[in-house]
From TrEMBL:
HAMAP family: Pro_tRNA_synth_type1 (MF_01569). Residues 238-261 are annotated as: Disordered. It comes from Desmospora profundinema. Keywords: Aminoacyl-tRNA synthetase, ATP-binding, Cytoplasm, Ligase, Nucleotide-binding, Protein biosynthesis. Belongs to the class-II aminoacyl-tRNA synthetase family. ProS type 1 subfamily. This is Proline--tRNA ligase. It comes from the Bacteria. Residues 33-470 form the Aminoacyl-transfer RNA synthetases class-II family profile domain. Its EC number is 6.1.1.15. GO terms for molecular function: proline-tRNA ligase activity. It is an enzyme of class 6 (ligase). Catalyzes the attachment of proline to tRNA(Pro) in a two-step reaction: proline is first activated by ATP to form Pro-AMP and then transferred to the acceptor end of tRNA(Pro). As ProRS can inadvertently accommodate and process non-cognate amino acids such as alanine and cysteine, to avoid such errors it has two additional distinct editing activities against alanine. One activity is designated as 'pretransfer' editing and involves the tRNA(Pro)-independent hydrolysis of activated Ala-AMP. InterPro entries: aa-tRNA-synt_IIb, aa-tRNA-synth_II, aa-tRNA-synth_II/BPL/LPL, Anticodon-bd, Anticodon-bd_dom_sf, Pro-tRNA-ligase_IIa, Pro-tRNA-synth_IIa_bac-type, Pro-tRNA-Synthase_IIa_type1. It catalyses: tRNA(Pro) + L-proline + ATP = L-prolyl-tRNA(Pro) + AMP + diphosphate.
Length: 575
């Protein structure tokens, strides 16, 4: 491709709204242009890289026997009403009506559509297992789409779905998908980890996210330094703190509860300082609305309650902190003075595992400006459920090996789920088993954000001068630059090399523009094609210069040996 006629408008600067490095660089390098908030046009360079990512994903999906389909982006509301997600998915759903006032949505994901297809087309166990996938534009009305392709309202996604007659078959396909994802992200040159995750609005009992490690990532990951345990902080398990619980060793020696004045002291730090006790001796009492019902959640004073864990522990659909009026009605006190002893209303009490080992604790007295000291769980109040509901902290013990948990940040680029029968039960998606009995499909689903992957590659592979594409995702393999196209010997040699590269099937971008050499080199750094070939002052001697974008290594080759050496050079570009 000749750069003179290519739509590749580079920019020196972009607006302050481009916060992420990938967003700034993809705009500056002429890969994308914003049409509306979170909505982008892919220009030729960006679209070529996107297609490279797509191709690798297709190859690995086909390798494990998944079949490609293409489903409608516009979905009838009736399907989503069958599963209840029309009402529960939330404001991210993009909805519309046709001229007949029938309700539709622009699909953010396709569990309902694929289940409808399978219930109509497959009715026997003999056709199972079956895996289907598509690469298609998705739509989600994000609250804050300000991270370029990392969080858009319209984006390209690979979503795959598998259907099974038994759990063992689902487990096997799930592992095949995990292995395929590892190959995909490895081939794309990404530094990533597979981490345990929450299933969120998709549902299911087991899921893993694939996270590209990046300090600019939105997600916090808990990773063990002693084993391969890794999880999103939303679901990271708390390791055992047995033997490290504060309070008296012998709960029988703890006096009866005593009310003490704590005027205006409503925070953990204020109460701990006022009573001269460590914050881990306090029991934090938080009132949540869980599917519309109040639930009192207890965690140690130095811990934070994890809403995702609370939601999962209770099998709830919606969890949110109760408002002040509800706290006052249930406990008799404003927030900060609530506690599990002597509640005005009977509510369910759920305690974190660390609370159960805490004796001689401090809790709110359920009246303004007062707390109770010398409180023991089990003696002074009863707990309905004990669960791991706290957010892990850096330095906590690993739940698997006891090693030390450390935090890092990541960008989610893939997510795999074991759905079970969540959708097939709701939509009566059934098949006949070997005995002629009707059973629900057992399902899995597996997503990769194609456009997000492209942005994550840029986020992880750039320097102060621009993008440094790995060869697998680069829009072109070679950037051929003629320093001065007005000089006959340079123009002749550059055009000769261009034709040779095209004939050899090499993807080449030929900068034949009438621009200064400095402008061409800056644009080349910005665009980030892995191998640069420069035809300049040594053209009269039959020499060309090569330079690797990643390492900066350069050298000269004669025009005769250039094509012979090219395969070796391309193998070294990612080094």
């Amino acid at each position: 491709m000749r750069q003179q006629t290519m739509l590749a408008p580079t920019l020196r600067e972009v607006g302050a709204e481009a916060e992420m490095a990938s967003h700034r660089l993809m705009l500056r390098a002429g890969l994308i242009r914003q049409l509306a908030s979170g909505v982008y046009t892919y220009l030729p360079l960006g679209y070529r890289s996107l297609r490279k990512v797509e191709q690798i994903v297709r190859e690995e999906m086909d390798r494990i026997g998944a079949q490609e389909v293409l489903m409608p982006a516009m979905n009838p509301a009736e399907l989503w009403e069958e599963t209840g997600r029309w009402d529960t998915y939330g404001p991210e759903l993009v909805t519309l009506k046709d001229r007949h006032e029938r309700k539709f949505l622009l699909g953010p994901t396709h569990e309902e559509v694929i289940t409808d297809l399978m219930r109509n087309e497959v009715n026997s166990y003999k056709k199972l297992p079956m895996s289907l996938y598509q690469i298609q534009t998705k739509f989600r009305d994000e609250r804050r789409p300000r991270s370029g392709l990392l969080r858009g309202r319209e984006f390209l996604m690979k979503d795959a779905y598998s259907f099974h007659a038994d759990r063992e078959s689902l487990d096997a396909t799930y592992q095949d998908m995990v292995d395929a994802y590892v190959r995909i992200f490895t081939r794309l040159g990404l530094d990533f980890r597979a981490v345990e995750a929450d299933s969120g609005a998709i549902g299911g009992k087991e899921s893993h996210e694939f996270m590209v490690l990046s300090e600019s990532g939105e997600d916090t990951l808990a990773i063990c330094g002693g084993c391969d345990y890794a999880a999103n902080i939303e679901t990271a398990q708390a390791g055992s703190t047995k033997g490290d619980s504060p309070g008296e060793a012998d709960p029988e020696q703890v006096p009866q509860p005593e009310k003490v004045a704590t005027p205006g002291k409503s925070t953990i730090l204020e109460v701990a300082s006022h009573l001269n006790v460590p914050s881990e001796r306090l029991i934090k009492s938080l009132l949540f609305q869980v599917d519309g019902e109040p639930v009192l959640v207890l965690v140690r004073g130095d811990d934070e309650a994890n809403e995702v864990k609370v939601k999962n522990a209770l099998g709830a659909t919606e969890v949110e902190l109760a408002d002040e009026a509800t706290v006052l009605r249930v406990t008799g006190a404003p927030a900060g003075f609530a506690g599990p002893v002597g509640l005005k209303e009977t509510v369910r009490i759920v305690a974190d595992e660390a609370v159960q080992g805490l004796y001689d604790g401090v809790v709110g007295a359920n009246e303004p400006d007062a707390h109770l000291i010398h409180v023991n769980p089990g003696r002074d109040f009863q707990v309905d459920q004990v669960a791991d509901i706290r957010t892990v902290k850096e330095g906590d013990p690993c739940p698997r090996c006891g090693g030390v948990i450390r935090f890092t940040r990541g960008i989610e680029v893939g997510h795999v789920f074991k759905l079970g029968t969540k959708y097939s039960d709701a939509m009566r998606g059934t098949f006949l088993d070997g005995e002629g009995k009707e059973r629900s499909f057992i399902m899995g689903c597996y997503g990769i954000g194609i456009s997000r992957v492209a942005a994550a590659i840029v986020e992880q592979h750039h320097d102060e001068n621009g993008i440094r594409w790995p060869l697998a995702a680069a829009p072109f393999q070679v950037h051929l630059i003629v320093v001065n196209a007005k000089k006959e010997e340079q123009a002749r040699l550059a055009n000769q090399l261009y034709e040779q590269l095209k004939d050899a099937g090499i993807e080449v971008l030929f900068d034949d523009r009438a621009e200064r050499a400095g402008v061409k080199f800056k644009d080349s750094d910005l665009i980030g094609i892995p191998l640069r070939v420069i035809v300049g002052g040594k053209a009269a001697e039959g020499l060309v210069e090569y330079k690797f974008r990643r390492s900066g290594e350069s050298g000269d080759l004669s025009a005769e040996e250039w094509m012979v050496k090219l395969p070796e050079l391309l193998k070294r570009v990612d080094g």
